[in-house]
Design brief:
By secondary structure, the chain is α+β, with helices and mostly antiparallel strands. About 40% of the residues lie in helices and about 15% in strands. It has one domain. Strand 3 and strand 4 form a beta hairpin. It is rod-shaped.
Length: about 200
């Protein structure tokens, strides 16, 4: 009886040992399946991270552009009213006698890339009521320009005519635009306002 108990215990131990040996490792198929699952998870996470980084960059660029537009409007409003048109139009001949620098209509926006083919290589531009095919020193109130709110009686004389209002304007419509190339291609933001003498 003692011998039989020993043999039974011995068989039970070797049976347990065999069962443990069968479960001790992973098969190659299990390892490859786990590797595929991990790879898919890593690719999904990295794709989400890259997408998030791109969206963050686009949002940052847009905020930089909006801030540049607001700063330019504030700068325009800080210039003596009678000098705004001459200081920010395309004509250099009417800059004599200004009490402020005359930067012209273009301005740079650090951190943004100008659109290819931009004539002055700057992202920002100030648009004034001048005929794009006419003289840059002629301020026109009779233009048909919805973006500037024209036609508009700029000298407040009750008549909208085609004469040059550069010397006697009382209102000055201004549109400030920033155009740049970002991750999603060409983008732009703008703001239109009317400046009046204070």
């Amino acid at each position: 009886m003692v011998g039989r108990n020993r043999r039974a215990r011995s068989r039970a131990r070797s049976s347990q040992r065999g069962a443990r040996e069968d479960c001790a490792g992973f098969t190659l198929v299990e390892v490859m399946a786990a590797a595929v699952v991990i790879a898919v998870a890593v690719l999904g996470a990295s794709s989400a991270i890259l997408s998030s980084a791109g969206l963050t960059r686009m949002n940052r660029d847009t905020e930089v552009a909006r801030q540049a537009v607001r700063q330019q409007i504030e700068e325009l409003q800080s210039v003596p009213f009678r000098e705004v048109f001459a200081a920010y139009n395309d004509d250099l001949a009417d800059d004599a006698g200004l009490t402020v620098p005359a930067p012209g209509p273009g301005f740079d926006v650090p951190g943004l890339t100008p659109v290819d083919g931009d004539e002055d290589g700057m992202c920002g531009r100030i648009f004034l009521p001048v005929d794009p095919l006419g003289d840059p020193w002629v301020l026109r109130e009779d233009l048909d320009d919805e973006q500037l709110g024209l036609p508009l009686d700029l000298d407040l004389d009750g008549v909208i005519d085609g004469t040059n209002q550069a010397a006697d304007y009382m209102l000055l419509p201004v549109r400030v635009e920033v155009r740049w190339v970002g991750l999603a291609g060409e983008r732009s933001t703008e703001l239109m306002t009317v400046i009046a003498e204070r």
